């Protein structure tokens, strides 16, 4: 272990001699890594001793069949049709990823415009790189459960083809909260406990909990992040307060644990440009897998962005009229707004003029099972050969990674990264000569509860104003790499103080940051010196338990409520209410996640005052809501 400590010290010293915080955080990560190995070994031995019949379900993927899986992918890619010019560009991106797969381990950006085929291109890099570098597994880290099933389904189709039935469930493992017990076999449950599969899909929340969260369930997975290819999809969705913690952890996994990290997005955040003394990602010298990112963005430009902001802003009726006109003109229009209240208002205004079978609504007031069903209906109409008309009103949940293709998108003003992601839902497959994205500034959107969006919107205004004054400043492309670089430069500069994860002083008697607690722990070390007259005699000074208890990957004090959506939702609530001991009813609790809506405290209190809530489990704080307060159109409503 001393050799590991010296290696960490020397590596960080060579990059930045004064960076004590990254050095000590990596010391702490080393301790957690060893703890992970200990916990995993102990739990596996205990489980195999108690239930030896299940030992055979484990795979032990140290000898992953990379050549076999590569052949399956290459066969799939060879058979893909390429009817549109955009398909040739996607193949070019995939070939660049193949060429880069022989590089040394490191941290590499994969900056590809939306609709550029990042899922298969990153898989191609990961499989070939894993074979070339003799790595154990590939771990995809996806931002939202709403898209993880989509991406995992694509990869499963490639690596677990129907003509290989013996490999079903043995190559691709999904590990996230939306999995129902009915979909998870005993083998999948056992493999999930230790991420024991060649390709693992998980969420950013679970990844961050693995590195920093409390308890042993998440920490048990940490050792599996070593000797792996880590693919971060839509990395720009990383919570701002976790930036330095994340950066130091990625550097540790790559430099000390023999892994490679791929940072995939169309809107690459400047994780390598933040304060190095607190922790910046050390991008590999060869940098992006794409040789000329700016040229690629120009080639893949499939939309025109029309900045329709105006003095005084847009009223809801005006936005509704614009959406109605574009719907009647094209038949396929998507409106993305920043708040659930605004989405409902626009839906109500349009429902009088648009048929019920054409008008759709999506928001996080709908439980995952509800959203998935409605999104499926939208996709079915979009993919219809008869070009069935569809007008969809959605919050930003539809932006990151959701594979839909509209002719027109209307986007409420937000961060430039959000506008770019919205543009990725327009003319995605290049069917039109040009799609259109209209940016409007609503009068009535209230963003007090959404500071990330509010701050991003202000900096997007600055870039849009500069572009409006001189389009040549950004080579005529407001969604290009230079405009995005300026946007993130403004955004990260203002939010530099938020990136270290502030800890409220009234919780643990300490007012500071989680970054400090997990690294130098300077304030408490100083207190020790004051009391003892000398520094602590030990190297590892982090209060691991206290820090992990303060960590939460989701920056929102929300409460989950189980909702009566459909017959299954009603049956689930009945089962929850009749279960004598929910603490042992893991299958019911897992099912409940697909039929739950997370609400802020003020919404919870309002529902409670209305008598709409029923306490299902006092110990687990599980509530269900009266059927009157869940709409088949909008989801949860007060």
Number of strands: 20
Outline: globular
The domain count comes to: 4
Percent of residues in helical segments? 40-55%
The CATH architecture assignment of the largest domain turns out to be: 3-Layer(aba) Sandwich
- Name the average pLDDT: 88
The CA-CA distance between the termini, in Å, is 56 Å
Strand order of the largest sheet: 1-6-5-2-4-3
Account of the 3D structure:
The chain has 4 domains: 278 residues, P-loop containing nucleotide triphosphate hydrolases (Rossmann fold); 193 residues, Rossmann fold (3-Layer(aba) Sandwich), CATH 3.40.50; 38 residues, no CATH class; 78 residues, no CATH class. The longest helix is centred in the N-terminal third of the chain and has 31 residues. The chain has 23 helices and 20 strands. By secondary structure, it is an alpha/beta fold. About 1% of the residues have low confidence. The radius of gyration is 25 Å and the shape is globular.
